[in-house]
Amino acid sequence: MASKIKVKEQILDLPKVEDARGNLSFIEEGGQIPFKIARVYWISDVPAGQKRGSHAFKTQEEIIIALSGSFDVVLNDGKETRTYQLNRAYKALYVPAKMWRTLENFATNSVCLVISSGAYNEDEYIRNFKKFKQFLKIEEGQTKVNTLESESIQECKTIVQNNTVFGCSQIELPTIKSRAGNLTPIHCSVDIPFDVKRVFFVYDIPYGKTRGMHAHKQCHQFLLAASGSFDVELDDGKSKRSISVNRPTEGIHVLPGIWSKEYNYSSGAICLVLASEAYTEEDYIRKYSDFKKIYGN
Q1: Considering its fold, how many domains does the chain have in total?
Q2: Which residues form the Sugar 3,4-ketoisomerase QdtA cupin domain (predicted)?
């Protein structure tokens, strides 16, 4: 009798906050994410018939989400091939290390979001399937418990009263272009000036609706348009500044103590946000009158 193959990958149901202004889903370190976030990247503009991936990681874990459109994730653990179709922004696939994975069957205008436990390191990749099988044989029979290092993330000490709208910078992101599509990576505290603990995205936004309209006391955010476009109005209590966000390779670093609202969403727009803190209601300032009392003097 054949031994049962232990399935390590897992479909995750993400929270879906339904709202007349558009839906919001999020995923947090220490919540749905079983590892410390080191890198976030997304793949877009994948031509019909092209495949992405076709590699395995030695130690890195991943979470994969279809922000827009759909695609298939084909996994192979060295013994069996399994296929998962991702086509909802509130569904995610956790992929453990030592798993060969390929992304294929991309629908038009699909955007694939990947959250990874490791920074880019070519030594982590196994790009040849035969070498992947050899790697698994070497690992076979050895009992290894991978313990994630507990790294303390320095709490943001920004004095929010000193932040202004002119300190909220637009950041151009690196983009790796190929005939199989574009890949835009963000390494925590490298491409953006903070570590990411929470990722959320707003989608299915009706015409004319406005999102945001709050400030954070300690949380840094990085906003970008994973698809479509929208405008961001920043307000520090004394000055205002409006910025158009219209490509997935550039975003805005919104500092703590800045009131922001997002509006003028195009059809099919997706607002992707990387945040420095897990969700706590205490970090929000939701009334503009309260915001003005604190920051408007």
Answers
A1: 2
A2: 9-136, 168-294
Residues 18 and 120 in one domain: yes
Its domain, for residue 55, covers: 10-23+30-139
214 is an active site residue = yes
Per-residue pLDDT of 92-119, as tens digits, reads 999 999 999 999 999 999 999 999 999 9
In a domain, residue 185? The reply is no
Are residues 124 and 209 located together in one domain of the fold? no
Per-residue pLDDT tens for 176-195?
999 999 999 999 999 999 99
| In a shared domain, residues 74 and 121 | yes
Q: Is residue 260 part of a domain?
A: yes
**pLDDT at residue 147 in the model:** 37
Catalytic residue among 214, 216, 220, 253: 214
Answer whether residue 5 is part of any domain.
no
Q: Is 188 part of a structural domain of the chain?
A: no
